[in-house]
Description:
Pfam families: YjiS-like (PF06568). This is DUF1127 domain-containing protein. Residues 19-50 form the YjiS-like domain. By secondary structure, this protein is mainly α. The protein has one domain (3-59). Helix content is 75%, strand content 0%. The chain is built from 3 helices and no strands. It has helices at 3-33, 37-42, 50-59. Helix 1 packs antiparallel against helix 3. The radius of gyration is 17 Å and the shape is rod-shaped.
Amino acid sequence: MTASGRSLFDTVARLRVQYAKWVQYRETVAELRRHNEHELEDLGMNRADITRVARAATYGEMA
């Protein structure tokens, strides 16, 4: 395989991984949004925490 072919392959592979993570993030957000306030409180969170928690679960970011 040529260098440019390998580079294209690597780029496509990275895009597939990024897309899969994005899908997982969206699914996590959707799942958490289905919970009511009491259920979220039982999980130790509130609505404002949903995107942060989903991001941490998907990408490993604890910001």
